[in-house]
Every structure is written in C-alpha cells, then in structure tokens.
Amino acid sequence: MVRAPCCEKMGLKRGPWTAEEDRILISHIQVYGHGNWRALPKQAGLQRCGKSCRLRWINYLRPDIKRGNFSREEEDTIIKLHEMLGNRWSAIAARLPGRTDNEIKNVWHTHLKKRLEQNHLAPEINGRSIDVSRFNHEFKTDPETVSSSNVVASGCDQIQEHRPVSPQRCSSDISSMTTVETSNNTCAKIENSDDFHEMDEVFWSEVLSADNSRAISDLSAIGTEPQLQFPFSPLIIDVEQVHAANSNMSDSMDFWYNLFTRAGELPELPEI
DNA sequence: AATTCCCTCAACCGCGATAGC
DNA sequence: GGCTATCGCGGTTGAGGGAAT
C-alpha cells in the first residue's frame, strides 16, 4: 500500500505540544471520544496528525496517567516482567496501572538497565541465574530435528505454523528443547526464550482448548507422561495442572506466574 | 561565566497487524 | 481474497536542561 505522507509533508505541526493544543485535544476527547484518530485533529481543529494526537493522549494527557518518579516497587516489577516478557513494553505497561509503555521503555533504558549492570543482576529463576546468551545458543534451531519431526516455532515472535505430526514423532528432549503436545495432534517445540514468552496467547490457547483432554490422552497413547517440559530448570508441568489453571486464567501473565509458582519453580515476588 | 558533555524523556518513524470495504 | 486505511507497537531521535570542566 502507499503510505500516507508524514505530518511535515502535509504541512502539519510537529514537535512539542503547547498548552493550548493540549487543552483542545483534551476537551475534544472529553466530548467526542477518540474513535478515529486520523479524523480527530481535523474535527478538533488541530494542526497535528492523528498519530501525534494519539501519542500525546496515550502518553501524557490521559486522566489515569500517573506522573512522577517510579517507586522502587514499580522498578522491581518492571525488571521482573522484563525478564519474563522481554521488550514487550505495552505488555509490561498493562501490569503497571497509570504507566505508559513509552515511560517504561525510557525508565528501562535510562535507569534499570544500568542498575542491573551495576548490580550484576542476572535474570533468575528459582534462585539460579540464567545465562541468556548460553540459553539462546543452546536452543537454536536444530535443522535435523526440525526436518525430522516437522516441528514448528521458527522465528522469534510467534509460532508460525503448526503441522500435524504423528505422536511418535513428537519426542521430548529436555536437554535441548521443550516439546509440547497439543490438543489437535500437533507438536511444537519452543526453541528459545523469546518463543517461550510468546507462547502464552497463541499456543497455549490451543493446548488449553476445550478439547484439552485429547492432548492428555494423546500423550498417554505414546507412552509419555502428560507433561510440559521447560528447559530452564528443567521444569515439569502437568498438563492437568495447566488445564486446571485455565479455568481461572484472567490473563496470560497471571496464568504463567500462577502456574510457575504452583509448580514451585519460581519464588514469590519479593516483598519491597 | 561560558562551554562542553551527558542524561532524560517527549515525540517521531517505520513496520506489522488488523479491520473494513 | 485483495486492497486500503488505521491502529498500535518497539526502536530511535533530538531538544532541553543540569552537571562538569
């Protein structure tokens, strides 16, 4: 598609917002809401592009924005969440009421990264530090494994495809990868930590689908204990445990944290 | 007091995802 | 199903201000 010209090319204003512009934007949104950001500046009489208006509202003008320095508790939460989610700032922001992804990203780059470096704080699970570089190296795609089992999960952001495989071809190799049996007789391997972090919504919804019982019977049929294996510890999680967690899963982060703490593999979040 | 350096953070850019036609 | 418009996200930039020289 042809990208819309940027603000400057359209003769629209850029740079810092004035108090007057803020006032106009706030009062417009209070009256009309922000259904269509692209149309908003024209309706409100602002010489800004919709993108700029949206950003200004989200990051600065929203009434529920919490201003001021981050507390130690908030910083520790960000560090903890960053260990689990990586640079998914919006996901992290969703766990910190009143804070924006942009703000968290800034705080991470200006304070927390340095703090971690200074304190030599490596990410930890169950009290053991994780050498991420080693992890990523060891869990790189093994071409032979991938071709022989039609296993998926290439790329780093999402499981890209799920091909049906015979149960016998789904092997668990706890020393190198996580292998998970799903409800529709597909097999996926989590090849690196990024993949793991992305599994929660796409993949687990499949594992945890209504037909979950089949996943368990499938595993039993091939003589494998119904279990999900996670290479960090290694951590073993019963599929039934996953299933139980599904019933009260309010969101993926709660789900994962509860799951791991139930399995005794993650410490409770430290008291600040 | 003037200049330079460094840090912070608001704002922008580019791209992928998604909705709507 | 393909195309287009829009949104939302993560990475990056650069102005402004404080600290150091």
Automatic annotation (TrEMBL):
GO CC annotations, alphabetized? nucleus
In which domain of life is the source organism classified? Eukaryota
Keywords (A to Z) from UniProt:
DNA-binding, Nucleus, Repeat, Transcription, Transcription regulation
Molecular functions per Gene Ontology = DNA binding
Where the record annotates domain HTH myb-type, the positions are 9-61, 62-116
**Transmembrane annotation, as ranges:** none
Q: Which Pfam families match?
A: Myb_DNA-binding (PF00249)
Identify the main location.
nucleus
User: Myb-like domain: from which residue to which, for each copy?
Assistant: 9-61, 62-112
Asked if the keyword Cell membrane belongs to this entry, the reply reads no
Subcellular localization, as worded in the UniProt entry? Nucleus
Q: Which residues form the signal peptide?
A: none
Keyword Cell inner membrane attached = no
Q: Spell out the protein name for this chain.
A: Uncharacterized protein
Q: Write down the species.
A: Salix udensis
Read off the lineage from the record.
Answer: Eukaryota, Viridiplantae, Streptophyta, Embryophyta, Tracheophyta
